[in-house]
Amino acid sequence: MARLADYFVLVGYDPGKRGSGDGQGQILQRFPEKDWEDNPFPQGIELFCQPSGWQLFPERNPPTFFVAVLTDINSERHYCACFTFWEAVESPQPQSHPRNGEGEEGEEEPSSPVQPAQLFAPKSLVLVSRLDHAEVFRNSLGLIYTIYVDGLSVSLENVIGNLLTCTIPITGGAQRTISLGAGDRQVIQTPINDSLPVSSCSVALLFRQLGITNVLFLFCAALTEHKILFLSSSYQRLTDACRALLALMFPLKYSFTYVPILPAQLLEVLSTPTPFIIGVHSIFQSETQELLDVVIADLDGGTVNVPECVHISLLPEPLLQQTREALSMVLDPELEVADLAFLPSTISASSLKMQDKEIRAVFLRLFAQLLQGYRWCLHIIRIHPEPVIRFHKAAFLGQRGLTEDDFLTKVLEGMAFAGFVTERGAPYRPIDLFDELVAYEVKRMRAEEGNKQKILRHIKELAEKLYKNENPYPAVTMHKVQKPTEGCHLRLHQKPFPRLDEGTVQWIIDQATAKLQTAPPAVKAEKKCMVPSGPPIAAILERNGNALANSARRLEVVRNCISYVFENKMLEAKKLFPAVLRAMKGRAARHCLTQELNLHVQQNRAVLDHQQFDFVIRMMNCCLQDCTAMDEHGIAAALLPLVTAFCRKLSPGITQFAYSCVQEHVVWTNIQFWEAMFYCDVQNHIRALYLDSNEENHAEEESTEEPQEAKSALEIASEQLRLWPTMSREKQQELIQKEESTVFSQAIHYANRMSYLLLPLDTSKNRLLRSSGLGDVESVSNSFVTNSIAGSVAESYDTESGFEDAESSDVANYVVRFINRFVDKVCTESGVTNEHLKGLHVMIPDIVQMHIETLDAVHRESKRLPPIQKPKLLRPNLLVGEECVMEGLRVCLMPDGREEAAGGSIGGPPLLPAEGAIFLTTYRIIFKGTPTDPLVGEQVVIRSFPIASLTKEKKISIQAQADPFLQEGLQLRSCTFQLLKIAFDEEVASDSAEIFRKHLHKLRYPQHVRGTFAFTVGQSPKQAMQPKAKEKNPSLRTLSKNLVKNAKKTIGRQYVTRKKYTPPAWEQRGSQHFPEDNEDEISVSEDMDRSTLTPSTTMRPSDKMTNAHVVERACCRDYQRLGLGTLSSSLTRSKNEPFRISTVNRMYAICRSYPGLLIVPQSIPDNTIQRISRCYRQNRFPVVCWRNSRTKAVLLRSGGLHGKGVVGLFKSQNAPTAGPSQTDSTSLEQEKYLQAVINSMPHYSDASGRNTLSGFTSAHMSSAGKWGSIRASGRMSSYALNVEIGSRLAGKDLLGAQHNGTPAETTFLRQHRASLYIIGDKSQLKGVKPDPLQHWEVVPIEVFDVRQVKASFKKLMKACVPGCPSSDPSVAYLRSLEESEWLSQIHKILQISVLVVELLDTGSSVLVSLEDGWDITTQVVSLVQLLSDRYYRTLEGFRLLVEKEWLSFGHRFSHRGAQTLAGQSSGFAPIFLQFLDCVHQIHLQFPMEFEFSQYYLKFLSYHYISNRFRTFLLDSDYERIELGLLYEEKGERKSQQVHKSIWDYIDRINRKTPVFFNYMFAPEDGEVLRPYSNISNLKVWDYYTEETLSEGPSYDWELTQGQPEQVEEPDRQDTGAPQSKRRIIWPCYDNRSRVEPDAISRLLQELHNLKTELGHVQERWKETWDGVKASQRTEARQEGSRTPSSLLMSSGLSHHRRSLGVYLQESGVGSTLNLSLDSDTSSTSTPSSGKPGGRRSTSTLYSQFQTSESENRSYEGSLYKKGAFMKPWKPRWFVLDKTKHQLRYYDSRMDTECKGVIDLAEVESITPGTPTMGAPKTVDEKAFFDLKTTKRVYNFCAQDVQLAQQWIDRIQSCLSDA
User: Fold this and answer.
1) Phi, psi at residue 1177, to the nearest 5°?
2) Contact 1130/1141 with Cβ under 8 angstroms?
3) Under a CB-based contact definition with an 8 Å cutoff, are residues 672 and 394 in contact?
4) Which of 308, 546, 583, 1459 could form an S-S bond across to 554 if both were Cys, CB 3.0 to 4.6 Å?
5) In angstroms, rounded to a whole number, what is the distance separating the alpha carbons of residues 1344 and 1276?
6) Which tens digits make up the pLDDT trace of 678-709?
7) Distance from C-alpha of 1317 to C-alpha of 1295, rounded to nearest angstrom
8) 0.85 exceeded by the pTM?
9) Per-residue model confidence as pLDDT tens digits over 879-906
């Protein structure tokens, strides 16, 4: 029973406190006057009576009523029912009270004469109670007011006394009728079960005000401990809303600040840091604006405002959605049927009271679902004397699969849930609706999920129960309470509320209390019982178990792997291992692992051998690495007993346990984990304690049906608690003691366990994972697999050690402190006695110390263990003469940004990372090893590159995933497009890594060229730096010496002081003048002795000898081939030859970087040359390097001109005869020189000449001036060189240009072509005077300098071989490729070259005079010759081209390749590589024009920087002579096994194998190639992107030969299956051309093998090939096929010489994408690759089977045809074939063998021609016509004009039909 009301208080306005602004209230009277003992009087009631402040009002307001809630210091709630009415008050000075009233008009000015007649002050009647019966309070206070206001004849004192003495039962559902003695009657209804909250209609009202979503927000905010503020202008509504929110939270209880109505004076409470639920009148809304972290619910406006900084975690899905749907069914039943055609009549919402209960039922169900199975996660750690219960949060979240869920995690951590566990955890207590729901109805809720009808039925059932709890009796006896008359509060003369007589009231109260004391105490019989636990979580979750469980297959893998480990089948285990590690991502697999391992533990111990131990450790680590600090619900827990069970013997008496290898995980440092584990174990022991005593007699039954019998700990506890009161005192004491000692022994056990897992193996290093209580989670989470080397796990810890120098005692202290903290906490919670606790504290340091000692021994022994798993180092194959400088350092090759090898998007097994070693030899850096992935573990991975190609080396630190201890690493980048990203193994000391770097640096940048591999090869590395090497041929040696001596004499003082072997590098001199960049300095070799330079007509004998050798040089052979002069007759020859070979530079005196013999115009004497040379940079004056045999135009090269100022400067400084005329005279001589060149040419520009290229229509004349663009500045990537270069120039669009680079219209239209074009650098040609006679023409162009090439190349390397992976490789690759601008540079070079080719082909000579004449000049000149002259497209010719233009003309290979220490700063500039790339682009476009293959170009690209051969060393012939290199090759040939020249090497390989040969080689006579140079036509060279990991780069031929055979054999035996011919070729691993050679190579190989078997004499492959070709030719003749000599004739490729061109085949129409750049603009042209071209190739396939009769001859007849260059006119029989779209010609009409075919697809135009030399005399001029194809121009002539016209028309119609 409880008092209905504790206090009655009368509160009034306090007139005394009026000065302070707002008024204040005061307590006028209170009853009883002294506090109840059990319930002191609450403070501050006067504040709550007028929450918005005490004020006076100008008129009377109607009485108001609301209930405020006060919470006292014991968190007891007091309900204050306030009934307020207004009384008149005399006002002396009213204006001193500013009021904040809302509705009333504001205060008047004090000066106003009109005073308000009267003011009214509020007065409150307040009841204070601990019970929340709002209606009873309203009625009772209303009654008191009625008695007062209506003056009823009832004593107020009596009524109040009765009210205060009324007692009612708290619970049990009884009805109690009370009367206050004023003729009234009220029925008080108590709830059946007071644990369920009473809400009447408040919950339903809250939903009406705010709506479903908003209330859910508030609900979640309250549960996750956010601050919530309600606003309303009604106090009663605030109270109701707060009450409703608490009712929704049942069964959790809100334990923070709860103030449904907050008075104005206390508003600062809102800024408290703790959570709260508070209501505030909405007039204070402005004050709440600046609250940043408060969720504000406006009840009147129906809004909930969540500030930005507050994140409310919502319910986990699908619960949130289900709750919303259920609420909507309850609140808005019409929604379901709103769309029906026939609305059911019956649908209507329940009454408000019922709706309220239904909403609460929804939330009750929600909690049952959220907390289902919670009782299975309660740990009972003590039963007697008081039960102690802990909730295992991690296990609960984990088993529910909600570890990641924010909401539930926060709820479980909250105060409300802690209260819930305390209150509901007890196993033996009364139970309520929630307990039943969560125990018995969870299965039902699962089953009904998704069935709306059933859910609604369940909700209604629950709502019934809740309603019944509040209103147990259906018919409530009628209340009878008097109400005041209407409007009575407005009566004018109302007397004030009387003062009550305290004595009377007190007497009534005393009477009642005396009576109560004599009455017998009402004992409430509590029905206690065992709380049901409900189904365990596992059973509940089975339905969606699949979401978490792995497939059975995965678990099978885990089981198999473990059984392999224990059966010692290590290789099998190793193969499954990666799959196991991947499976460990799933929880089921981790559980499976712990169970499987458990099976292998006998009697708490399992001794393993080292490898087994290692596997078990790695699995455990993998298992643990994904565990959160919360302990991935039980994985760590399950492993805890195992880590102390698995062990291995290190030596007699010393055992290492698994725990020393799994300490790396953060879970071990989490004190909550240890508590949960401890409590779990304690619970098991306590359960055992009681089971043993009780169950001895049930043993037999238990074995038969164990699952039912096994009682849970809670059940046992509940049983014990039931029996407790019945036990004797001694028995109770004994049980308490037993339990206490159980807990104590567990605490000791855990102190041991924790020291095992917290003390690192190597305590001396203080290698602690944690600096504070919790380790840095990141650092730990990814270091999961202990090192695969079981033993060196130990020492590897120290590589990461946190604080090196600390003493070991720190570790010990830390661990002791950690364990002490733990022991204190658990022992106090589980009631261990103080003595025991002290004993523990004494023991812990000893336990730790003892463990440290055992660990030291283990650590010592484990270091001695031989590391198991490291693969043995594989030795690389070395070249002859290549020697190891450093033995292999064990490293791991990490994947870089190329994804092929790492098994990226392309698929295939990851070949990288690979374990192996890095070797440094005198020639290469080599990595050789095996992939770490066991699936490809049998493969060998090799990556290597020549040391000389190293461009960048940087230290990196690598966190290898497989191994947390790999730290230091190196990234080595090479310009052979290779990247070694290596991480040193921990066994490699850091100083050996340093030594490796030093050696590498020394070898990469030797002091002198003599230190490079090409020179040191064959010597031992020690002597590598000795300057002299013995020469085998003394005469040659002396010769070189002589040459050098003479050169020295001639050159003068400047070099005399140099040491013998130092080549005079230009940068050493130039750097004094130009510190910024050493690219274009000017050589200062001016102060020469004049006398030595005058050309001598008589040669000294030594010079003759020199010349004899010089003649043998490549250039001379080439000059003779080109007819540019021979040396033998140079002194006596006739003067009519235009050019001569000059020996002016034989001593390298005039130009150091030119060859000894040069071609100059016949008319220029040598001494002029010497003067001219000064005008050019580096003295590189113009010399002829090639002549067009048809047009006799010549190609010259030189360095750029000096600016005038610069020239003048040098003259005045150095020349003794400096005079004003000097500069002029040189420029005159220069002009004379150029004029001599022009004069040397036959004058093709003469109009009467019948040049084959001149007969063009005027169609071309119109488009003038398109050349400007090549000179236009602009970004590298956008050079818009006009498309039709060829046709324009041929049509005489002249390159006239003024010197500012703008085209002048007049010159463009000039019909005159200059004889000599000078292609020069725009910046340098400002000073060149225009030639008045326009014999020569200057074409200024912009070129990129070496710096740009370097920068571009760096970017290209990064694009092709990125250092680290990017998110979207293909996009990143293309972007960085574009940024590198490499292709733009290639485009530029090709563009200039094609321009020069065109000019030469039209009969103008060209002088290329760019930069210093040795970089881009060389590129252009070489390409021009390659394009113009088919000889250079053969193997022999290409060699000659490189030797002549690159080596003899002094391209600075050593300097550009940064081959020595001196060049280190300038870096690598790939000028030659760029040239080879251009050749590769041309090769792609004209695959049939080159005798050499693409591989040949790659081979040169690789070896020109590899320093394996001497060919590409040094910067000029002069330097090579100085080192005695130039001629030694001839003499030393005999004894060579090491090839010093790359050319010999290539010859040797070429003799053995066709790898350098292009089978498609089928050149056409005199064809000039004009490649497309647009960037869209260029391809990235695969040399940059491909690699072969199986053998390393394939360019060192000896190393890679002979391997594939060995590789194939084991495969054969391996597979027992029937042999298939299929081979798997991995990208980036296999060398495709070797594993699967092309058809012809294979046939040649088979032929070779057959001959060997038959014992025939071996002939070389080339002979076989030539034989085959010859026989093919004769066959073709017999069969009447019309194809030039090529093996590929049947495919018709020879007609289709360009490999570019896109065919879009459509029916009947040839639609074309014309990719050709040089197609003509003439109206008659057809695209070069249209539909007929597409058809043609098929037609030729069948051509060999047709005879001439059956051919389709649309038109035929006899025509004269002019042969190719220099051949006469001949009559031929022509056949026009429309079907095959070709024009064929035969020797005579009867001839069956076709002599040639003109493909009409390639015809560009057909125009009237002009007769040339040797044409038939009798014929009319108009009968000549020309047919221009993409390849050449055919000149025809018919018998007469009509025939000619007929032919032209036929051919035209054929073209237009296409």
Assistant:
1) -65, 140
2) yes
3) yes
4) 583
5) 8
6) 888 888 888 888 877 665 444 443 333 334 44
7) 9
8) no
9) 888 889 888 888 888 888 887 777 666 6
